[in-house]
Amino acid sequence: TRKFIAAAAQLGPIARDEPRASAVARMQKLLIDAHRRGAELVVFPELALTTFFPRWLIEDEAELDAFYETEMPNAEVQPLFDTARDLGVGFYLGYAEIAYEHGQKRRFNTSITVDKTGQIIGKYRKIHLPGHPEYEDWRPFQHLEKRYFEHGNLGFGVFDGFGGKLGMCLCNDRRWPETFRVLGLRGAELVMLGYNTPVHYPLAPEHDHLQDFHNHLSMQAGAYANGCWVIGTAKAGREEGCDLIGGTCIIAPTGEIIAKTQGFGDELAMAEIDLDRCRELRENVFNFALHREPDDYRDICAG
Ligand code: CDT
């Protein structure tokens, strides 16, 4: 069988001045607790090492750079890698990345998957970047992901791990069916994602009460229509005056939420993942080879 216990490790708010060491210690604690309860894989949020800094305009480059990692692991994150390796637990981690490529300084909103031996087995750079590139003074808080990150240049990769095929995405990616479909077409059996989602959406405040619904709607639909497991992990709670949704959950290939957090702080949602259950969908209603009609989908590939 290809069964293992997984944990979605929700984090409560991280303050702007909270050191990496504190966030890492909180994640170590969750990881140890998850291991005690049998977990072999732990999924942490998007930008899990710092506060969600795109909510501010930061013009000083050194101040901005301080929110990014230039190496992974690095000295501050190593304790998390060490604890995980010692316990034999793998994990997904979101963080802001500075990479030097072809002599250029580049910034990405990144996630990695680490196996039980501490090796990075997958890396993803966020493709659907929400928000806006310039400061907008009418907003109660900024969402400057389009300023602080470049479009991810690694595609939607699927890689081997935990006895199956794994895929990753980040936050806003989950709202796009294309994310899950591309991962599904590539055979992903488990999609992991972290998110930071404000309750208040300044462009359409009439949707504020729907944020939890839209969060689950998109992840459950992605799981069902592609016959894959989804683990979605929030950074939740009131972070620097901005309320972030919780709703961290584990979703079966049927689209059912089978584990969910209750609050807005550091908390685990845990479930047994049986990767063979993907067949319930992929050999039936979503047997792609038998039932997909790609000739009629041409428009969704046009720019
Ligand atoms: N982090 C992230 O992608 N958040 C967005 C917020 C809404 S768009 C401003 C999300 O899709 O949840």
TrEMBL record:
Q: Name one Pfam family in it.
A: CN_hydrolase
Q: Name the InterPro entries on file.
A: Aliph_Amidase/BUP, C-N_Hydrolase, C-N_Hydrolase_sf
In alphabetical order, the GO MF annotations are: hydrolase activity
Is Iron-sulfur among the key words of this record?
A: no
Which SUPFAM superfamilies does the UniProt entry name for this protein? Carbon-nitrogen hydrolase
Q: Which PROSITE patterns match?
A: CN_HYDROLASE
Do you know which Gene3D superfamilies this protein is assigned to?
Carbon-nitrogen hydrolase
| Keywords on record | Hydrolase
User: Which stretches make up the CN hydrolase domain?
Assistant: 4-275
Q: Does the keyword Hydrolase apply?
A: yes
Q: Name the chain's protein.
A: N-carbamoyl-D-amino-acid hydrolase
